[in-house]
Amino acid sequence: MNSPNYQQFLKIVQNKKIQVRTLQAGEKLQIGQVQIRVLWPEKKQITENQLNNNSLVLQVQYQQISILFTGDIEAIAEEKIVEAYGKSLQSTILKVAHHGSKSSTIEKFLQCVNPKIALIGVGENNTFGHPNEMILQRLKDRGCKIYRTDKNGEIVITIHKQMEIKEKIPCIN
């Protein structure tokens, strides 16, 4: 990748002698009772909007709770992920891709994930108009409880015997 930010990241990592591991679809990591499946990117990367569409996508499973972390992927990557994984994408919590922009969170993807909770990381009064109203409606139509960092502040999820979600400002759906 030729992104200036990525090149700066590589310099910092090299200077601090930090080991970097590149993950690809199909890998699995086990940390105690937490299982992490790497769903994306594949070896053959998407060339359209490369930085977003080749974001790391992880499905994290702990006890009965699963969380799908989607990075900044867009519809083209979501389509490929649905083709590869189908209903095994089902997750309790979805970190909505690309700040809830209209370029992501396609219906077919949501059908497979079928989340109960949607998390959207987005800046307050951002110039992009994120999250998109159509995406919010799509999530509401599925019965998702929606947490947004612009409305709820920092969101903390704690899972012990049961799941607890704390936010600075109460969620209003």
Could you characterize the architecture of this molecule?
There is one protein chain. With 173 residues, this protein is of the alpha/beta class. It has a single domain, classed as Ribonuclease Z/Hydroxyacylglutathione hydrolase-like (Metallo-beta-lactamase, Chain A). Helices cover 27% and strands 25% of the residues. It has six helices and nine strands. The strands form two sheets. A seven-stranded mixed β-sheet has the order 1-2-3-4-5-6-7. A two-stranded antiparallel ribbon has the order 8-9. Strand 3 and strand 4 form a beta hairpin. The longest helix has 12 residues, at 4-15. It starts with a helix and ends in a 6-residue tail after the last strand.
Number of DSSP-assigned strands = 9
At the fourth CATH level, what is the homologous superfamily? Ribonuclease Z/Hydroxyacylglutathione hydrolase-like
The CATH architecture: 4-Layer Sandwich
Low-confidence stretches: none
CATH class: Alpha Beta
**How widely separated are the two ends?**
40 Å
Domain tally: 1
Describe what is shown at a glance.
The chain is an alpha/beta fold and 173 residues long.
Topology (elements, then pairings):
Elements: H1 4-15, E1 28-31, E2 34-40, H2 50-53, E3 57-62, E4 65-69, H3 75-85, E5 93-95, H4 107-113, E6 117-120, H5 133-141, E7 145-148, H6 149-152, E8 155-159, E9 163-167
Q: What labels describe this entry?
A:
173 residues; alpha/beta; Metallo-beta-lactamase, Chain A; two-stranded antiparallel sheet; 27% helix; globular
